[in-house]
Amino acid sequence: MTPADRTVDVVVAGAGYSGLQTARTLVDAGLDVLVLEARDRVGGRVLTEVTPSGAVVDQGGQWIGPTQDRLQALADEYGVSTFPTYLDGANLEVRDGSVHPFIGLVPTSDRDGSADTVATLLDLDLLAQEVSPTHPWDHPDAGALDRITLAEWVESAADTQTARSLVATAALAVFGCGPEELSLLYVLSYAHSGGSMSSLIRTAGGAQERRFTGGAQQMALRLAERLGDRIVLDAPVVSVSYTDGGTGEPAGVMVTAERRGADDGRSSWRVAARRLVVAMPPAVQGRIAFDPPLPGSREQLVQRAPMGSVTKIHAVYDRPFWRDAGLSGQVVADAGMLRATFDDSPEDGSHGILMGFIAGAVDRSSESDGAAGRQRVCLEELARAFGPEAAEPIEFVEQRWSAEPYSRGGPVAGLGPGVLTACGPSLRMPVGPIHWAGTETASVWSGYIEGALESGERAATEVVATLDGTALNRATGLDESSGQ
Amino acid sequence: MTPADRTVDVVVAGAGYSGLQTARTLVDAGLDVLVLEARDRVGGRVLTEVTPSGAVVDQGGQWIGPTQDRLQALADEYGVSTFPTYLDGANLEVRDGSVHPFIGLVPTSDRDGSADTVATLLDLDLLAQEVSPTHPWDHPDAGALDRITLAEWVESAADTQTARSLVATAALAVFGCGPEELSLLYVLSYAHSGGSMSSLIRTAGGAQERRFTGGAQQMALRLAERLGDRIVLDAPVVSVSYTDGGTGEPAGVMVTAERRGADDGRSSWRVAARRLVVAMPPAVQGRIAFDPPLPGSREQLVQRAPMGSVTKIHAVYDRPFWRDAGLSGQVVADAGMLRATFDDSPEDGSHGILMGFIAGAVDRSSESDGAAGRQRVCLEELARAFGPEAAEPIEFVEQRWSAEPYSRGGPVAGLGPGVLTACGPSLRMPVGPIHWAGTETASVWSGYIEGALESGERAATEVVATLDGTALNRATGLDESSGQ
């Protein structure tokens, strides 16, 4: 075996919020940590960019809502302020090609459908309260709940096509998956982890309540500054060999990353560690070769946790003109490319930004349209809702998460029928010296930044617990960094 | 960029039956081909082994049936003979813990259930005839058929629990997936590719009709002999960079494999080629890093094509004692670890072998039982069916396909709801210089050895068509092998 290029206590694979929080917690516990990140940046599915015209756009996760306390604490720590998502005025409902204004969470143009939607959401919320966010497979009816899709459930739970369509829109916006792709048990567990489905889809009082002045990636950048050269960018982990210590030798891992040099040449780089925390979505973890192979149940889980498909678009205007017409910028559509839009203008309204989601099957099929084709359709739809001025943005940007090899989609994994009951327990179960973080493993706000932070704390705590005081690096003198 | 270690016309990634047939077809067309295989053997999901007592066991694919003409031709070519799967005497049905003998395809202890099962199978077969094996998404009701699972369909199509349970057993045996994991559209398309669901589950006249004297891997071994040093074993492909030739430079790939040396050290090995054929299941392909990333729709497909979960067990006895009792060795069970068994004795009956499948959720959860625990339960179940003698085999072997890193499960990919309509066209669509083989891409007998062979021929034909005569290696003098 080639010797290690570096030896640390713990390797963290992935520098999204979950990996950063893992690393920070481990460092605070006195451990020697190295974070290997595949991309040339930190933040994972959270990415703030500045457009040529100076608009700040969050290309990924962007919001904070009530009970997301870890994220709020992090923002406070780094002095990042928040402001309410703009929601003054009327939202717009697009139904059967017509546009109808409405106030509040649920569109109202079809009165029966509106009442039915509220009743259906309530049913979903009540069901979700019964399902554990961490152990949904323990529910007495777990098998039955996991056997059907959200689409199948809503087919019988709702009486109107309007309610079914609105649940589909919610699924697309929340998961990047259509309701026919999602296990009901998974949806219930996921919703409960954030409170309820209603809290997931609410702006005021829900997951979309507030935004970060300057963008949601800032705290990741500050965390990364603090971690300093413990983070190595451009270093995707490609393989991991490990031993669980069963034969008397100490448990440990050898992590091989493929580093890209200045000349674009690649070289393997090996880091030995006592523990590894994999802080990435299961589908991305699935790319890493493990030796010995991971247990079959973990392997099967990883193949059954596909990422949703989502493209986020931002249309930038010189001012938020829709506000003059008493519109909030929020659209809920029953069809088309953009099923949901938001006002993503800066707090001071110095320019106007409409943000929209292309999600699920439409996102996948829109690939053949190309960027120009998607822009054309999106602007047509924005103009239908907000008038001709919407067709003439000064800038239009899109972020296609399914084209990102180190995310493989977004915003989150979408589990289909039968997966949680068959493979769910493997989601967080350590394999020898390997522990799992990532928002998909969170017990609160799974799929959100808050969940990423919680998962990192939990994984780090697991690691610290297995490395008790006497076995710590400092005591055993393992800290022989041979340099990078 | 590091220069290539070797340059060929076409790299084939994977030396299962699809990759071997691809390579053979390409070589016959005069092309310079290199096959990179991750394992230390060829054959993929087909593996024949000899146990210590000298029993020949097929650990993976093993049968040949009517209309599997390519496979028959290959067996003829290499002089491998076949013999009928043993099916004299009564099959056994295990229902609600009791054992009932029956003759024919469908268990009969519950008469209403039996009639209902036949009617349900017929319904499924008729539906399957409407669905194209190659373009199921073109069906006028594709959306609706892809929106529901096989479980949901059978819930309404069948009137009895017996019929539902038998369809579940069929799904587990055919796909290694429970009916709640499978899209109805996928099941219909898959069944049609092999004729009908009935042909898939039949022994006489169906997919399990005959076996190969000496095992099903033999033709793969002979093909590999013929290909000689064009096959490199122990060389998993880890990354591929490619250009589609859009910018005027010729389309081509640079394939990086990780070769394991005699000292267990690993080294990267780079092969340049004009085309690449990826001959492996989508889920295994998903482990390879592509640069530029594959299109999002392909990426999303690959995340949504998980392998079924199956363990094949063989209990070896000194003679096929169940035949004395007038039993065929076939069991169909409504519960338990083994949902289906077969007589896998050699043709001359010189010893007795019972083979069984542990599939789907039970296969995954049985991981925690360990090999000894699984053996104990399997032997209890065999003894319940065939008497106490079955509890005392001279050998017991198991092959857990979900623990095989280069299969990731078996026997085949199981697509859930919404996948085919959303991502199906990406299954076979070339991406620049990259073509896709593997039985999951087959238009006939998808999931079977026959389908693997067909897919290889089709992929090779695609490649040859894009490399027209004037551009062939021989003419352009690219054939500068620099050695391996």
What's the SSE blueprint?
Two copies of one chain form a homodimer.
Chain A: E1 6-13, H1 17-28, E2 33-36, E3 48-50, E4 56-58, E5 63-64, H2 69-77, E6 82-84, E7 90-95, E8 98-102, H3 111-130, H4 142-147, H5 150-157, H6 161-175, H7 184-193, H8 197-201, E9 210-212, H9 218-227, E10 231-232, E11 237-243, E12 252-260, E13 266-279, H10 282-285, E14 289-291, H11 296-303, E15 310-317, E16 327-333, E17 340-343, E18 352-359, H12 360-365, H13 370-386, E19 395-400, H14 419-423, E20 434-437, H15 449-466, H16 473-476
Parallel strand pairs in A: 1-2, 1-13, 2-10, 7-16, 11-14, 13-20
Antiparallel strand pairs in A: 3-4, 5-9, 6-9, 7-8, 11-12, 12-13, 15-18, 15-19, 16-17, 17-18
Helix pairs in contact in A: 1-9, 1-15, 3-6, 3-7
Detailed description of the structure:
2 copies of one chain form a homodimer. By secondary structure, chain A is of the alpha/beta class. Among the domains of chain A are: 6-46 and 217-294 and 431-476, FAD/NAD(P)-binding domain, CATH 3.50.50; 47-66 and 79-105 and 206-212 and 308-406, Polyamine Oxidase, Chain A, domain 2 (Alpha-Beta Complex), CATH 3.90.660. Helices cover 32% and strands 23% of the residues of chain A. In chain A, strands 1, 2, 10, 11, 12, 13, 14 and 20 form an 8-stranded mixed sheet that branches. In chain A, strands 8-7-16-17-18-15-19 form a 7-stranded mixed sheet. In chain A, a hairpin with an 8-residue loop joins strand 17 (340-343) and strand 18. In chain A, helix 1 packs parallel to helix 9 and helix 3 packs across helix 7. At the A-B interface, helix 11, helix 12 and helix 14 of A face helix 11, helix 12 and helix 14 of B.
